[in-house]
Amino acid sequence: MGADREFAYGAAAGLLGDLLLGDPRRGHPVAAFGRAAAAVEQMLWRDDRGRGALHTAVCVGGAVALGSLASRCVRSSPAASVALTGAATWAVVGGTSLAREARAIGRALTAGDVQAARARLPHLCGRDPQALDADGIARAVVESVAENTSDAVVGALVWGAVAGVPGLLGFRAVNTLDAMVGHKSPRYRRYGWASARLDDVAGWPGARLTAVLAAAAGPDPRGAVRAWRADAAKHPSPNAGPVEASFAGALGVRLGGTLSYAGRVEHRPVLNGTGRPVATADIDRAVRLSRRVGWLALGVGAAARIAGTRIIGTRIAAARTSGKGHRS
User: Fold this and answer.
1) Which of 112, 199, 271, 303 shows the greatest Cβ crowding within 10 Å of its Cβ?
2) Counting beta carbons within 10 angstroms of the beta carbon of residue 17, is it exposed (0 to 12), middle (13 to 18) or buried (19 or more)?
3) Is the pTM of this model over 0.85?
4) Could you tell me if 175 and 202 are in contact, meaning their C-beta atoms sit under 8 angstroms apart?
5) Which residue, 287, 253, 259, is CA-closest to 102?
6) What is the largest CA-CA distance in the chain?
7) CA 250/CA 149 separation, integer angstroms
8) pLDDT at residue 325 is higher than 70
9) Taking a C-beta distance cutoff of 8 angstroms, is the pair 174, 92 a contact?
């Protein structure tokens, strides 16, 4: 069994494991990484970009090195390689937890319990829940589902297809660091700069693939493409923009506008301005679209890795044949 098929089988098993099991309540590997990254921050923190870049290099480099070491230990056993890829995929993707939290908020809104929905919203995103009514909460949930489909599922699968287990762990490390130190608070404006920029780079391919797949799998492909082309560049995030715009167009809803983070008000551009306001029922529609996008991303990643391996193998074989011809 080649490394390409090991990735395909392992990633499929990991994604299925996430679907069936979700994230553990205790002892999650990503939480362990977060604690280690926080310990490194305590040792290195200065209000300085250089120290922040060192923090990023240590944490991401450590995750990639761990993945490389583990892959080398099992490379002689196809079954062990598949198992390792499956375990790594399960550890880094978070589609089921995303869906559960979103639907829990949706159920609270459906029951008319806005206070319960506000209480659960911080589990999903960093918005100030007290500043939101029921419609604002529903919009925040749909936007979070869209963005996290890229961050928590598709981006990891893309880098797994490119670099195997080291790619899976490295992407999750980058994304976790960005969530920890990549925001523009006084403490992290300079220290978190490297983590935020690296997250922009690492998230770029996954965000574009997510937007493409949302358009392909959503109920309104033309609307998704139209909103993506018209509005994505207006978003302050280079990666959230295409994803949220594509989801908005695909679902026929209007996203963006005024929002609040810990008392800081932001006025973001409207995405898919011709769409209708988000309703509570759109939360479940967004979750279903997110699920379809995740499985399609697995298929695209596995197919791309298999095709890439075959192309590289063909070129190596041709180069060897050419070399033998010259020697003769």
Assistant:
1) 271
2) middle
3) yes
4) yes
5) 287
6) 82
7) 14
8) no
9) no
